[in-house]
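Hi team, as promised in this morning's meeting, here are the two structures we talked about. I've kept the exact order from the run log so nobody has to guess. The first one is mostly here for context; it's the second one we should focus on when we meet again. Sequence first, then the predicted structure tokens.
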Amino acid sequence: MKSIVAIVGRPNVGKSSLFNRIVGWRKAIVNDAPGVTRDRHYSVADWCGREFIVVDTGGIDFAPEIDLESKVTKQSLEAISEADIVLCVFDGQVEPTSHDIELTRKLNKIGKPVIYAINKIDEAVHEGRKDCYYELGMDDFVMCSSEHGRNFDELLDKIIGYLPDEKEENKNKEALYVTVVGRPNVGKSTLINRLAGNERVIAHEMPGTTRDSIDVDIEFEGAHYVFVDTAGIRKSFKVHERVEKISAMKALRTVDRSEIICFLIDATDKITHQDLNLISFIHSEGKGITIFVNKWDLIDSSWDEFEQDIKDRLGELSYLTILPISAKTGYNCLKIFSWIQNINNNLNSKITTSKLNKIVQDALMGHHLPVCKGRQINIYYCTQIGTRPPTFALFANYPADIPEAYRRYLKNKLAEKGEIHGVPIKLVFRKKK
């Protein structure tokens, strides 16, 4: 397995900027306001052909004023415990603080390699600032600048110098990426913690706690999953903070990383207009979707009626699978893995050409194509041209004139008769030569 390098330090010393510089792209949100990073943040980095996993963490505060800060510190300390190498970052613009001194004392006792970096040293003339850091008891620092990339070669050389000899990695397991999406405070982080079996991401009653997209590795019954926890997506006009706007955009971009989306809705709110818009967007991106109704333990009503109400509001997307769950109590949560596998299998669905054309011909007989501009439209045959999502080409004499309503009708018939559930179907209409 790849070695893990955890980046730690007090708030606002530039850990996320350092993380982005190491991994080579802006994965973590960077903002001048302290406390933007709250969860552990993982990504693979490469230097001189050696790969390692780098972890961004929230700021460590040994005297937290609020409960959320205490949880952030807990997450950071857990990252230290699971890391192979620790990269401790200081702010070179100021002298060491009491938090820096306390953190250094703790790191001296962990029995792991620790690399100390003094960040924000933008020019050589600033290197004299390291003198005040000798009182911490170390004599080896990397004077660097995450903003300008200064001395990053030296920093990365130190990291790979601690890496163990390369071993053959197990390449037989391919992770199935699953993105968890929904509005703020519907229970996304609580659900992932339930599936992971520990508090892997921060769950808090305050909406908007998750601001970055967090990858969580989970193995279940021999299968490897990566669940991506995303920030809650609000209506844009309700998002006032710049950080929350960035989080919402990152959540939407994260949808592209996965072919399977777990869409959470709050049972106490039912399905909202915004939920419907997001589900429609995800469907248009060709993703497999399953809807989980969280907090079902708070509802005292018939599931059949509740489910039918959701399907009625989904309209043409009523074929999507819907399951009531409770991330808090664990109700139905283990079923999620089998539902994900079903979605994954359906994304790979294939229909034989003979069966496919039988379905199309029966659909044509059941509902004849209209006449357009005095011309009779005919569909001659159909063939499957792809999977993930299942994609079919239909050959016609006037393909451009086939009405949108009839295209939806054919999709529904292919989904029903071809037993393709929970995933979008893509139709491509071509002119028969």
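And here is the second protein, the one for discussion:
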Amino acid sequence: MKSDFSDSVWCKFGTLLIGVYYRFDNSLIVGSENNDKLCELIKELCGENVLVMGDFNFPEINWTSNTVNAS
């Protein structure tokens, strides 16, 4: 998988593309455009058989209620 997003690993099993991410939440280290790069990568994967796993560091997500309290 070609991407400008830092810290991801990909492999393919048959038609299934598997990606593992670590979204570092410090923009001083990875740059302020890192979230945009992640969104571009996700858009590129539309229509594929994809399993995405990892640590996205989004503290605004309430995993109990499956809601987000952020823009």
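Starting points for discussion:
The radius of gyration is 13 Å.
The chain has one domain: 8-59.
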